[in-house]
Amino acid sequence: MHIEILNTGTELLLGNTLNTHGSWFGRQLFNMGLRVARQSTVPDGEAIREAFEEMVLRSDALLITGGLGPTSDDLTREIVAESLGLELHQDEQALRTLESFFSIRGKPMVAANLKQVLVPTGADVLPNPNGTAPGLYLPPRINRLSNCAIFLLPGPPRELYPMFHNEVAPRLRSLSGCSDVASVCELKFTGIGESDFHHGIDDELAALAGLEYGYCARMGEVDLRLIGNDQVISTARDLVLEKFSEFLISDDGTSLEATVTRLLREKGKKLATAESCTGGLIANRLTNVPGASEVFTHGWVTYANEAKMDQLHVAKNLLEMHGAVSEEVARAMAEGALQESAADCALSVTGIAGPDGGTEEKPVGTAWLGLAVRGKKTQTVRVFHPRNRKDFKQAVSQSALNLVRLEIRG
Prior knowledge:
Layout: E1 3-8, H1 10-14, H2 21-31, E2 36-42, H3 47-58, E3 61-65, H4 76-84, E4 88-90, H5 92-104, E5 118-120, E6 124-126, E7 135-138, E8 149-153, H6 157-176, E9 183-190, H7 194-200, H8 202-206, E10 212-218, E11 221-228, H9 230-244, E12 248-250, H10 256-267, E13 271-275, H11 281-287, E14 296-301, H12 305-312, H13 316-322, H14 327-341, E15 345-351, E16 366-373, E17 379-384, H15 389-409
Helix pairs in contact: 3-4, 10-15
């Protein structure tokens, strides 16, 4: 079933409002065994007409969001009706519902609100208990341009999402007759590039009949998406992990920090962090995970050298001899955090975020990681992430958390 989404609203294109509808619709429809074929966003006004008349000719179902309000720029209903040659009439049930909405709240209803109860002839009114603008369903039988089912939906998520579940989804199921819902498996990897998968596993995945796969590269991560029936997904997963299991974060979409938290909990271990260049980002990522309090004990942000000496007992001569960004200081920070926290392991990071401060020996983007584990020799790792400050911090935090993952996993 060819389904398209048309989002309307000038605010979506000005950047004042984040358009989250596309990803939300994608998830909901996929769970029904359906897909979004294309999504477009247009400003209020006549641009809606041009987009609508193009999309309605190639779609089996068209979902249009926004433009159903009482203001002069809310024109979706009028444009769709005019394009289809349908007259608008006032729906009595919709009018009573609207009057009740204002009466319950003790507010007067202005005349402009009456445009919200105008309905194209032959359309179904979709109730909206969460707002004043009812939705509309124009079935294919009244569409004079094509055999496309058309849904006009309010823009605000608090109104749109319940209406989709209650009114749109049942109609789409009936129209599509779709009962074969594909499974999806999202494998999350770190420490490996997207091109490594292309060279290492692409041909084998392409040879699996009934498998759809794709990659999504993120900061410090690559997601591999497998879609198909359970058997082909299992086969593909085995092929991938045979080559890349050491880089696997999770096979259910779980984040790196959530995976680290789970591994620590399973092993009965506790972690402390000592951060300089990341400014507390590692601790923030960990504490965003429910249940982090079971495994995370302390988080130091020792940005200044004095803080490293006072809080983590880093020796002054180490800082003077090797500099704050060095293997020696990273080791001392991790060992100091381990001593002070009484945790089972302590992670440290120190680096040069830039844009200034780099040297030929230590260019901007250089960072040292330290991991001290009780009863073991402290590990140190040099990483290089020459990026802007924000991305540098994210990349270093990713490398650091992955160091913990590898250690705890054994």
